Amino acid sequence: MNTSTRSMADFELSSDAQGRWVCRVAGSEPQVGVQVVRSFPLSAPDEAISIVGPDGHEVVFVAQLGALDETRRNAVAQALAEREFSPVIQRIREVSTFGTPSTWQVDTDRGPTELVLKVEEDIRRLPGQRRLLITSAHGVVFDIPDRNQLDRVSRRYLERFL
């Protein structure tokens, strides 16, 4: 961590009227247009989070999201949610073919949708987990947190591609 990076105790994160994130660090001018970024989004999503200024330099480093007070934790979580769009697949209703490319009809936490799977390698298993990430032809990454929690029909569709 560089010496100009601040600890997590002396910052404020909020959204301005234009929807841009603003970081106020004690003793310095507010930075408008910051981004909140996870260092390890898959293996440690609540650890090592950086607030990065518009110039690309880290302004604040958050070692543990849970260590922040509720106001800061909620602001950081909201900024992350706006940045990361990853619908969670709850059910696979239909698959057009068991080869690729194939069109999948799925239900997600954001409603029903259709995705195109270009190649089987677009289904990524995370080591040591039952979690799957499926990248659609449009680049949207869909999440299946635990494939064993899907219904039997959905699991059967997945097994054909795994």
Structure characterization notes:
The chain is mainly β and 162 residues long. Helix content is 14%, strand content 38%. It is built from two helices and twelve strands. It has a three-stranded antiparallel beta sheet. Strands 4-5-6 form a three-stranded antiparallel beta sheet. A three-stranded antiparallel beta sheet has the order 7-8-9. A hairpin with an 8-residue loop joins strand 4 and strand 5. It starts with 10 loop residues before the first strand and ends with a helix.
| Cα-atom radius of gyration | 19 Å
| Inertia-based shape | elongated
The averaged pLDDT comes out at: 90
Instruction: Give the termini distance in whole angstroms.
Output: 40 Å
Approximately what portion of the residues adopt beta-strand conformation?
35-45%
Structural category: mainly beta
Range of helix content: 10-25%
